[in-house]
Amino acid sequence: MSIEDRAKATAKNIEGAAQEALGNVTGDPKDKAEGKIKQKQAEASHTVEDVKDEIKKKID
Predict the structure, then answer these.
(1) Three-state SS for 4?
(2) Interval 34-50: pLDDT, tens
(3) φ, ψ (nearest 5 deg) of residue 21
(4) How is 3-42 classified by DSSP, letter by letter?
(5) What is the C-alpha to C-alpha distance for residues 52 and 33, in angstroms, rounded to an integer?
(6) If DSSP codes are grouped into helix, strand and coil, which group holds residue 23?
(7) What is the pLDDT of residue 45?
(8) 42: exposed, middle or buried (Cβ count in 10 Å: 0-12, 13-18, 19+)
(9) In a 10 Å sphere around its CB, with 0-12 CB exposed, 13-18 middle and 19+ buried, how is residue 27 labelled?
(10) What percentage of the chain has pLDDT greater than the value 70?
(11) Which residues contact 21 (CB under 8 A, 6 or more apart)?
(12) What is the pTM of this model?
């Protein structure tokens, strides 16, 4: 798996957490929702990369 892909997913997760926190502070439901979505997207990206790693291990 690409370290670059993991780094992008981690950055998206951090961005999402910050946006969700901002939404909590300001009371903006849109920011809260968008932040949660970004975190879920990052989680999905990590899962995809984990699957890729497992497949590569089995092939090697």
Answers:
(1) helix
(2) 999 999 999 999 999 99
(3) -65, -40
(4) HHHHHHHHHHHHHHHHHHHHHHHHT-HHHHHHHHHHHHHH
(5) 29
(6) helix
(7) 95
(8) buried
(9) exposed
(10) 98
(11) 35
(12) 0.84
- Which amino acid, residue 3? I
Confidence band (pLDDT; 50, 70, 90) for 1? low
Which residue has tokens 């968008």? 34
Cα distances (Å, whole numbers) of residue 6 to 25, 26, 30: 29, 30, 26
Question: Which token pair is 45?
Answer: 């990206």
* Average per-residue pLDDT for the chain: 94
Amino acid present at 44 = A
Q: Show the tokens assigned to 4.
A: 């670059």
